[in-house]
Design a protein that fits this description.
It comes from Bombyx mandarina (Wild silk moth). This is Bardet-Biedl syndrome 7 protein homolog isoform X1. The chain is α+β, with helices and mostly antiparallel strands. Helices cover about 20% and strands about 40% of the residues. α6 (about 640-660) packs across α8 and α9 packs antiparallel against α10. It is globular.
């Protein structure tokens, strides 16, 4: 766990807030420069310095469609150029059209890309035929022949040459980020792609020549500035918070995890920062933290050392190093709400404050006072205008602005919780949560959760979450409180986000909890090479449905993003608790589902049947269930049940030891009152919350048997056998359970 030592010293000098932080090895402080609109990842860039000037220009694009270039003089922003509002700017890239330092700015708004000079003149504009917004831009110079513009939009990578589409490539899933590399003979361009749920791949001449699956879910790339031009080495940040490096050598693509996630927020952006003649990798995360890792330039595969950590309180969208407000290096950071600030050494701050004359400080203060008076007058005029319109007899409609809010939902963990991450551009006051079903609910420690008692019945949920002042990001953990282990429909949760300020308006978020939330892990799969799939339970569906309709039906079953509709869709999901798998393959009018979990097949069968009835689409459903499916599945999770049983005993023992209320001295004495086993259990219960899902595993195994009986032709003695299985599992008699399942398999085979 990272420890942060704060000197608790704040100074307000001419409107610039300075906060000192001492973390790890570096002493750095924050200086707020300016505020833009809501920013997307990697839309903040720093132009290289020209000539003898060390100060660099800052370029930032925001959601309002404004691209602005600024310099910082005397700690105040000076606008060099600023575009008019338009479509949201989703990507910004600095490029060089003559092979030297980057001197041009490319910005993407929707499906349109424009190129700007440092003075704001538009020298390039192209409106593409892409159906999705451009998320990444690359420009590769080709010596005498100009350059190639490479755009990433959804699943499509498009090459443009001389403002004309040259070639394109469609990936199996969304492309999250890309980096370009030149071959040794400067004849070809190789692209390193990060593909959602698929890992990384090398694209060359319109073909995917190499691919590697990375389970951590990489989402952002950063090419080391010290790497060779033709050498493919790139750092990546992943959704689980880890940081690693991807290498392509001799047609082999490999990856190495350098920093494990360990509960850190997902990586949103990466950047480079020079300090004390050393290269650092800057990491911006979704939880608001900014970290600096020292990189060994001689050996990039060595584990980087953490040197600094700062928490901003809201998601970080961009991090980049440079010399903006001083001759020395500083780290420029952009947040989700558009706050642009720098992290620099506190000695530089002290020097800049000392050098500032009293006249300059007085002028800054006077300027701020005038700005405050102007804002107060504007606020009073708007308030008076609103009150005058509300008292008017003329018919009219008052429409408050739509709140800028983002939310992201993850699949279920091993404990069954699904996490919803909510981020606002303004401080949040309260959340109102309603669901027609009973839910279990957890929230951030910085908020107060209150569950209201139901008036009519106990089958629904109504809860409120009150946030601390200044909260812009909050997470919720949801879980359906069902007495049955099989849920045959998705669950809709309504969340009303109420920010602070007036007028009091709320934003409605509608969140769907899928029926099978545990199937959140993605895995590469080759049906032809895996022969074990032949013994799985199979479900065949035929009818008059389209690929889009089947994808929509599966959104009620599986968590996360599904593959986009295509002529033929195939993917594999893994159960995060049991490790069982679900293979889905469908096209127009035909779908096949295979799983080594019979309850999964039963749930998919019921939900697809209900969805087809609602849409009035006639479908034919058939199942192929092996006789030994329950026995094989039980052997697959037998070790998981053993671990859960041991944890259950530890939980029971820990509760009993807590009732003894033992003194710390008695535990740590030379002659301890507890044996070594009891002492270990007590220490583990203090360091972490012990939880056991043994009872849930019993319900799963019993449900396997019930589903097997319901889908097979012989359904006799279902209640007696299920009760017998439940009793044996509770007594932890796994050998007897295996024997019973074997006898049932042989009996069913004999009847057939």
């Amino acid at each position: 766990m990272l420890k942060i030592l704060c000197q608790q010293s704040e100074k307000d000098v001419a409107g610039i807030i300075i906060v000192y932080y001492r973390v790890m090895d570096y002493d750095m402080c924050r200086i707020d420069y300016f505020i833009s609109g809501i920013t997307y990842p990697d839309t903040l860039k720093i132009l290289p310095s020209q000539g003898q000037k060390l100060e660099q220009k800052v370029v930032v694009g925001d959601k309002t469609g404004v691209l602005q270039c600024l310099t910082i003089r005397d700690e105040e922003p000076v606008i060099q150029f600023k575009t008019l509002p338009g479509k949201p700017i989703t990507a910004v890239q600095l490029t060089s059209t003559n092979g030297t330092q980057p001197d041009k700015i490319f910005a993407a708004s929707g499906n349109e890309v424009k190129g700007y000079t440092k003075k704001g003149k538009v020298f390039f504009s192209i409106e593409t035929a892409l159906s999705e917004p451009v998320t990444s831009i690359l420009y590769v110079s080709r010596c005498v022949f100009g350059g190639d513009l490479i755009l990433c939009s959804g699943r499509t990578i498009t090459f443009y040459r001389d403002s004309k589409e040259h070639q394109s490539y469609v990936c199996k899933d969304r492309v999250l980020d890309m980096a370009a590399f030149i071959t040794p003979n400067n004849a070809k361009v190789r692209l390193l792609l990060l593909i959602a749920h698929k890992g990384a791949g090398i694209l060359e001449n319109g073909h995917l020549v190499a691919h590697i699956a990375i389970s951590s879910g990489p989402s952002r790339l950063a090419t080391p500035p010290v790497a060779q031009v033709a050498e493919i080495k790139c750092f990546y940040g992943a959704a689980d918070g880890s940081v690693g490096i991807i290498t392509y050598e001799e047609t082999t693509l490999s990856n190495n995890c350098l920093v494990e996630g360990r509960g850190l927020g997902s990586v949103v952006c990466l950047g480079w920062f020079y300090s004390n003649a050393n290269l650092h990798l800057a990491v911006g995360r979704n939880d608001g933290s900014v970290q600096l890792y020292l990189i060994d330039v001689e050996n990039l595969h060595l584990k980087p050392r953490l040197k600094f950590t700062y928490f901003s309180g809201e998601p970080v969208t961009s991090v980049v190093g440079g010399c903006v407000g001083t001759d020395e290096g500083e780290l420029l950071v952009a947040t989700f709400s558009g706050r642009i600030f720098a992290l620099r050494s506190k000695f530089l701050i002290a020097g800049s404050v000392t050098k500032a004359s009293h006249e300059n400080l007085a002028a800054r203060r006077s300027k701020l006072e005038i700005e405050i008076v102007r804002l107060e007058k504007q606020t009073a005029n708007e308030r008076e205008k609103y009150q005058r319109n509300s008292r008017s007899l003329q018919a009219g409609l008052s429409t408050p602005p739509l709140l800028d809010i983002e939310h992201k939902m993850s699949g279920a963990t091993r404990e069954g919780w699904q996490e919803v991450d909510i981020t606002l551009a303004v401080p949040l006051d309260m959340l109102f949560i309603y669901c027609s079903k009973k839910l279990k609910l957890l929230t951030d420690s910085a908020a107060v959760l209150s569950v209201c008692s139901s008036q009519d019945s106990a089958s629904d949920l109504l809860a409120t979450v009150r946030c601390q002042a200044g909260t812009r990001r909050i997470w919720l953990r949801l879980r359906v409180a069902s007495t049955n282990s099989t849920v045959l429909e998705s669950t809709r949760v309504l969340i009303y986000a109420l920010p602070t300020g007036a007028p009091r308006v709320a934003r409605l978020l509608s969140i769907k909890l899928p029926a099978l939330p545990y199937y959140s892990q993605h895995e590469e799969f080759d049906e032809n090479n895996d022969h074990s799939i032949k013994s799985w339970c199979q479900l065949h569906v035929t009818g008059g449905f389209s690929v889009a309709e089947m994808t929509f039906w599966l959104s009620d079953i599986l968590p996360g993003d599904l593959p986009r509709p295509a002529s033929n869709v195939a993917f594999l999901r893994v159960h995060s608790l049991l490790g069982t798998k679900l293979y889905c393959q469908y096209q127009r009018g035909s779908a096949v589902f295979k799983s080594n979990n019979i309850s999964t097949v039963s749930s998919v069968r019921s939900i697809i049947s209900n969805c087809s009835i609602d849409k009035r689409i006639r479908v034919e459903i058939s199942c192929d269930i092996p006789d030994d499916c329950c026995l094989k599945s039980f052997k697959l999770i037998e070790n998981i049940i053993s671990i859960a049983y041991e944890k259950k005993n530890q939980v029971t023992l820990a509760k009993a030891l807590d009732l003894l209320e033992l003194d710390t001295k008695a535990i740590n004495a030379e002659k301890p009152v507890l044996c070594k086993e009891y002492y270990t259990v007590l220490k583990n219960s203090e360091s972490e919350i012990l939880q056991s899902n043994f009872d849930e595993l019993i319900e799963i195994v019993v449900q396997w048997y019930l589903d097997w009986r319901s889908l097979s032709v012989n359904g006799n003695n279902t209640v007696d056998q299920s009760n017998k299985l439940c009793a044996l599992l509770k007594d932890y008699k796994l050998d007897d359970v295996t024997k019973v399942l074997s006898e049932l398999t042989e009996f069913n085979h004999t009847c057939e």
